[in-house]
């Protein structure tokens, strides 16, 4: 146990099976969902039994992580002295192909989160899960939740149908900005496309490593499409993306932009500066060696103290013991990462933390 | 009138001449390799032409600015940059004191053709064209052995047929293939390359059919251009995780035009998550970063330009000064000039010699 | 700073350009719709000769997807990496506060305003690497382009 006293910006209460959501469905879907054998909508990105999806000491008797409130309270919150934690539910609602079915499952997921988790521990906050590819229904769901101050973010998956900066998705950002909600892009794929530009590989490890490359593509998309010109109040959080790839990614984006500025003439500043103002990243996973000064160098290369947000990514296996905030993180940044940056990014948290 | 002639002074970075690991020769026009094709395929080229996994017959789905080349590389008669040896010699090889130049023919694109027989016919024609139009007239120029990569057996045959001509210094495979290149179906290409003692040169490009990102088709050339760096990272991941280097411990891979500044972060990420998920890939005997250290080389162009050039130096320190190969990408628009491109990076004389010549000479057996 | 006669007006009609040399510095001279602009020929990025670059208008936007086009011919794109410079101010379009090329005032003068012979350094057509310093006697009545450098 350690008392970091911070805000954990990425934990995963987990749906045990769709049966958990059925009580929150009504009428047509309450009948259809059980009848159509939709019991298991676990995302292919996080098969429950795979070693990354849950640390062994965090699994329940049924082998799954994140399914019991008491364990989450003890292992994710108490163990780190966490004062507030943002729940990102990874389940199949957003990736269903049928718009209406996707919307129904997402609504039920958010209802389940509010009732089974947010109402039962005042430290918990939630991200609004939305049927991302169905714009009207996605905006409806945001409007439905925005009045509940316990929902602090709108969440989408990293790999969807289109790059997220495209105008097609802008109604989501309009609604989010209006309500003061950041957009959280969480690692994971809808598998509408191969996980990289070179096709489908063989291994889950391969797909997981590939997430950081598409996070980069999403950053480039948000910047080049001018999302932040149109929605200057919008913040985007990359969740479980890794962050050590970002500086070198942005060096190249800046360089290429200098020659191709005319293709995206609405950008008034270079990409690195736009990213510093609008994009944040959660801490886990820390893709860096366990010793040496490489991590400190990369953090220095970010050129900003404001970008990193503390997270454990519970129950995913990103560290052993309670090493969520390793000593290699410069001491001068710890308070910012644990408290200040999350509060800055998620204004709805400020009241509870005061 | 009195006349004084002022000669333009050219700085050379290495007295004995640099080795340029990425030069793009172009055929004279879309039918430029016709003489190297047998009649059946000449007919096919004229009537049917390219069949790629992209919407246009010949144009780029993400159009370049200009014609994709330096404006001043256009020939005086209006011809396409890189299509005339004499002009290339004058503007680049002689002017920049190039001791050796490694050719990367990008057009016609033999590797990505959906018609596999045409792919094979075109590949061998491009190889013949490199030899006759470029390497034999100018001994400084070395060729990349183009293969019909989606037919790995035919590729292996082409390699075995050509490898004894030491004008070929590497096998050319396009990174954006139908599947990641680490997958077993491509292993006959690696076997033939290793047998012949040739590295594999992976130059950005190819139309494998997958969108440039894991979340679909980007809007802008700016995004597509950047995605080449991401393709290279996925490629390293595939080659390492599939166990290619356990099967082919002598295989050498050159990543061309994908940059390299992303390599440390990728290696750290691979190592970290391999530790968690290593039961999925029990054929790997060592950490991914160890395979990366031993089997990969990287060309310099387009050299990254962070606000602090010191960061590039730190990155090369991590990768190894013996792994970096200078390249210009002549005549493309994002060309790096040997006199200026790497000047902001503080280097010792020995490091400069390694990058501009020594590493390539050792890798390709050129000195 | 001094005024240098670099070319005859007749040699640089509208839509054309000329590479000239003043005190061993190469300068790119443009005539855009009757107005002269002159900039130092070397791109601050990688040293390319700007005189070979393409002239375009200003590509701008009032917002994402709302394209505007103005100032035809007044933006110089470096022939290599496409960095854009405003010929009027020398400033980079992408980063006007951080990057610029030196620009020079250009005027014209009649022969009777010029004393002595005119020494003009120019490159023969098609031979940009060969700069030749040529001296012209100024006896005939002509208009000349003058750069202050």
Low-confidence stretches of chain A: none
The amount of beta strand of chain C, in percent, is over 45%
Which quaternary structure do these chains form?
Answer: heterotrimer
Q: Number of DSSP strands of chain A?
A: 8
Strand order of the biggest β-sheet of chain C: 1-11-8-4-3-2-9-10
Strand content of chain A: 5-15%
DSSP helical segment count of chain C: 0
Might you state the CATH topology name of chain C? Rieske Iron-sulfur Protein
Uncertain regions spanning at least 5 consecutive residues of chain C: 128-133
Query: Could you give the count of β-strands of chain C?
Result: 11
CATH topology of chain A: TIM Barrel
Number of separate structural domains of chain A? 1
Largest beta-sheet characterization of chain A: 8 strands, parallel
Shape of chain C: elongated
Q: Which CATH-level-2 architecture of chain A?
A: Alpha-Beta Barrel
Short recap of the structure:
The complex is a heterotrimer of chains A (354), B (367) and C (149). Chain A is of the alpha/beta class.
Which terms would index this structure?
heterotrimer, B: 367 residues, alpha/beta, TIM Barrel, eight-stranded parallel sheet, 11 helices, disordered N terminus, C: 149 residues, mainly beta, Rieske Iron-sulfur Protein, eight-stranded antiparallel sheet, three-stranded antiparallel sheet
Describe this structure in words.
The complex is a heterotrimer of chains A (354), B (367) and C (149). With 354 residues, chain A is α/β, with parallel strands linked by helices. In chain A, strands 1-2-3-4-5-6-7-8 form an eight-stranded parallel sheet. Chain A has twelve helices and eight strands. Helices cover 38% and strands 12% of the residues of chain A. Chain B has a single domain, classed as TIM Barrel (Alpha-Beta Barrel). Helix content of chain B is 36%, strand content 12%. Chain B is built from eleven helices and nine strands. In chain B, helix 10 (310-319) links the parallel strand 8 and strand 9. Residues 1-12 of chain B have low confidence and may be disordered. Chain C has one domain (3-139): Rieske Iron-sulfur Protein (3-layer Sandwich), CATH 2.102.10. Helices cover 0% and strands 52% of the residues of chain C. Chain C is built from no helices and eleven strands. Chain C has an eight-stranded antiparallel sheet with strand order 1-11-8-4-3-2-9-10, with no helix packed on it. Chain C has a three-stranded antiparallel sheet with strand order 5-6-7, with no helix packed on it. In chain C, a hairpin with a 2-residue loop joins strand 2 (17-22) and strand 3. Chain C is elongated, with a radius of gyration of 16 Å. Chains in contact: A-B, A-C, B-C. At the A-B interface, helix 6, helix 8 and helix 10 of A face helix 6, helix 8 and helix 10 of B.
């Amino acid at each position: 146990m350690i008392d970091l006293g911070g805000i954990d910006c990425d934990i995963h209460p987990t749906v045990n099976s769709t049966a958990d959501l059925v009580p929150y469905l009504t009428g047509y879907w309450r009948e259809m969902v059980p009848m159509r054998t939709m019991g298991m909508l676990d995302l292919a990105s996080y098969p429950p039994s795979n070693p990354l999806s849950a640390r062994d000491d965090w699994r329940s008797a049924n082998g799954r992580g994140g399914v019991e409130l008491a364990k989450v309270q003890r292992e994710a919150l108490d163990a780190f002295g966490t004062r507030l934690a943002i729940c990102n539910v990874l389940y199949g609602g957003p990736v269903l192909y049928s718009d209406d079915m996707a919307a129904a499952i997402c609504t039920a997921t958010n209802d389940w989160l509010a009732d089974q988790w947010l109402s039962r521990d005042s430290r918990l906050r939630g991200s609004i899960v939305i049927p991302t590819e169905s714009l009207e229904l996605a905006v409806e769901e945001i409007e439905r939740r925005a009045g509940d101050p316990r929902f602090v973010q709108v969440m989408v998956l990293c790999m969807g149908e289109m790059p997220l900066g495209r105008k097609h998705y802008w109604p989501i950002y309009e609604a989010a900005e209006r309500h003061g909600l950041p957009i959280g892009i969480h690692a994971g794929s809808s598998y509408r496309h191969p996980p990289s530009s070179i096709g489908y590989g063989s291994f889950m490890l391969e797909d997981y490593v590939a997430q950081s490359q598409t996070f980069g593509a999403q950053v480039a998309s948000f910047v080049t499409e001018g999302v932040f010109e149109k929605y200057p109040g919008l913040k985007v959080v990359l969740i479980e993306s890794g962050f050590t790839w970002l500086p070198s990614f942005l060096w190249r984006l800046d360089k290429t932009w200098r020659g191709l500025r005319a293709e995206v003439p609405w950008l008034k500043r270079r990409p690195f500066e736009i990213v510093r103002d609008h994009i944040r990243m959660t801490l886990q996973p820390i893709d860096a060696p366990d010793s040496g000064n490489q991590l400190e160098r990369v953090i220095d290369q970010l050129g900003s103290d404001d970008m990193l947000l503390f997270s454990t990514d519970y129950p995913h296996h990103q560290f052993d013991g309670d090493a969520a905030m390793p000593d290699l993180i410069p001491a001068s940044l710890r308070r910012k990462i644990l408290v200040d940056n999350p509060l800055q990014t998620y204004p709805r948290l400020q009241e509870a933390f005061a | 009138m009195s006349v004084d002639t002022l000669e333009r002074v050219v700085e050379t970075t290495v007295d004995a001449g640099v080795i340029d690991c990425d030069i793009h020769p172009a055929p004279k026009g879309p039918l430029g390799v016709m003489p190297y094709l047998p009649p059946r395929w000449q007919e096919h080229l004229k009537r049917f032409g390219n069949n790629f996994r992209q919407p246009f017959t010949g144009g780029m789905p993400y159009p370049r600015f200009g014609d994709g080349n330096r404006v001043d590389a256009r020939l005086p008669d209006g011809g396409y940059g890189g299509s005339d040896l004499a002009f290339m010699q004058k503007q680049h090889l002689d002017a920049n004191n190039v001791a050796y130049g490694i050719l990367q023919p990008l057009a016609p694109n033999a590797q990505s053709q959906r018609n596999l027989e045409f792919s094979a016919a075109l590949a061998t024609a491009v190889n013949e064209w490199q030899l006759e139009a470029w390497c034999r007239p100018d001994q400084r120029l070395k060729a990349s052995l183009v293969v019909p990569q989606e037919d790995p057996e035919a590729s292996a045959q082409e390699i075995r047929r050509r490898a004894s001509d030491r004008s070929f210094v590497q096998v050319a495979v396009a990174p954006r293939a139908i599947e990641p290149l680490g997958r077993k179906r491509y292993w006959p290409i690696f076997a033939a390359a290793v047998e012949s003692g040739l590295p594999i040169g992976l130059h950005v490009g190819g139309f494998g059919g997958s969108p440039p990102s894991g979340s679909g088709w980007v809007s802008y050339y700016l995004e597509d251009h950047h995605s080449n760096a991401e393709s290279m990272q996925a490629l390293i991941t595939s080659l390492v995780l599939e166990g290619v280097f356990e099967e082919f411990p002598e295989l050498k891979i050159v990543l061309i035009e994908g940059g390299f500044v992303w390599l440390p972060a990728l290696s750290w990420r691979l190592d970290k998550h391999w530790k968690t998920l290593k039961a999925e890939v029990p054929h790997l005997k060592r950490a991914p970063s160890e395979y990366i250290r031993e089997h990969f080389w990287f060309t310099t162009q387009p050299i990254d330009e962070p606000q602090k050039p010191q960061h590039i130096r730190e990155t090369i320190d991590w990768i190894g000064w013996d792994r970096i190969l200078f390249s210009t990408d002549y005549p493309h628009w994002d060309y790096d000039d040997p006199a200026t491109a790497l000047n902001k990076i503080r280097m010792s004389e020995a490091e400069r010699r390694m990058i501009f010549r020594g590493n390539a000479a050792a890798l390709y057996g050129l000195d | 700073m001094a005024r240098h006669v670099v070319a005859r007006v007749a040699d640089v009609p509208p839509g054309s350009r000329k590479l000239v040399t003043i005190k061993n510095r190469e300068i790119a001279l443009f005539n855009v719709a009757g107005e002269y602009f002159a900039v130092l020929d070397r791109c601050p990025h990688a040293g390319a000769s700007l005189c070979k670059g393409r002239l375009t208008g200003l590509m701008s936007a009032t917002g994402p997807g709302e394209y505007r086009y103005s100032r035809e011919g007044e933006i110089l794109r470096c022939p290599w990496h496409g960095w854009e410079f405003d010929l009027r101010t020398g400033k980079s379009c992408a980063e006007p506060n951080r990057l610029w090329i030196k620009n020079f005032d250009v005027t014209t003068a009649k022969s009777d305003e010029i004393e002595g012979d005119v020494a003009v350094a120019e490159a023969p057509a098609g031979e940009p690497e060969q700069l030749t310093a040529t001296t012209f006697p100024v006896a005939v009545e002509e208009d000349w382009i003058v750069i202050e450098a």
